[in-house]
Amino acid sequence: MMAAILPRTVRRAAEAALLLRSTPPRGTGHLARSLSGGSAACSNAGTSSVEFVPWHNGGGILHRAASVDPTAVVEAGAIVHSGAVLGKEVVVGSGAVIGPSVSIGHSTRIGYNVVLSNCSVGEFCTIHNGACIGQDGFGFFVDEDGQVKKKSQMLYARIGNHVEIGANTCIDRGSWRETMIGDHTKIDNLVQVGHNVVIGKCCMICGQVGIAGSATLGDYVTLGGRVAIRDHVSIVSKVRLAANSSVTKDIQKPGDYGGFPAVPINEWRRQTANLRLFSKKDGVKT
C-alpha cells in the first residue's frame, strides 16, 4: 500500500514545484514600466505569454514593453499591450483592452470593456463602458471584376484633452487623414464617428448621432439626438442642429438648423406649420 502511495505523492510534489517555477513572482509587474524591459527575451510564439505580467496596482495584465506610470491603476481583467503608454493616475477598468502603441494622458479614466487601438487619448478624459476607438472605418469599393474590396485604413484616431465619450460609442481610425476630436468636446452614448472625421473643440454631440466619413465640424457645434451628417460635409463653428435633422450639404453660416434636409430653423418651422395646415385642409375636403 505504501509503495503505491509514495510514487504518487512524489509526482504531485514535482508537479506543484513545476507550477510554482512557471508562475512569475509578484514583483515582476514593476518591469512593465519600462519600454525595453525584456521585450526581446521571448521571441517565439511558444513563450509569448511570458511577455505579459501582472500589474501591482489593480491586478490587470501588462506587456513588458508597455510604459505605465506607477500611479496608474489597471483593474483585474484589463490588459495593456506592447508599446502602450499610460500616464499618471490613469485608471483602466476591468475588461478593457489597451492595444499596441496606444497612449493615454494624465488622469484619464477608461471604463469597463473599452477597446482602444490605433489611437491616442489626451489628459483628463473619460471614456465610458463599451466604447471602441481606433478600429477600421467602413471603407470599401467594387473593383472591375465586381468584387467588394476593402480600402486601406492605416491612420489613427486622436482624442484631445478633457473629452468625454459615452458608452458604446465608436470612433473609427483615419484612412487619408487622422480622425480628430477636439479639446473639451462631449459625446453621448451610441454615437458613430466615421473615419477621417474632424470635430472641433467644445462640441456637444447627443445620443445616436451618426457622422459619416470625412465630415468636418467646427468649434462649439451642437448636434441634437439622432442627427445624421452625410460624408464629406463641412459645418462651420457655432452651429446647432435640432434632433432628427439630416445634413446633406455644407453649412457655411453659424446659427440654428433643423429638418431633413437641414435648413435654417425658422424656415424649417414654416415648412412644418404649412405641412400641418395643408394636411388639415386636405382632411376637410375629403
UniProtKB/TrEMBL annotation:
Alphabetical UniProt keywords: Acyltransferase, Lipid A biosynthesis, Lipid biosynthesis, Lipid metabolism, Transferase
Pfam family name, one: Hexapep
CDD domains named among the record's database cross-references: LbH_LpxD (cd03352)
MF terms (GO), sorted A to Z: acyltransferase activity
CC annotations in GO: membrane
GO biological process, one term: lipid A biosynthetic process
NCBIfam families: PRK00892.1 (NF002060)
Protein name: UDP-3-O-acylglucosamine N-acyltransferase 2, mitochondrial
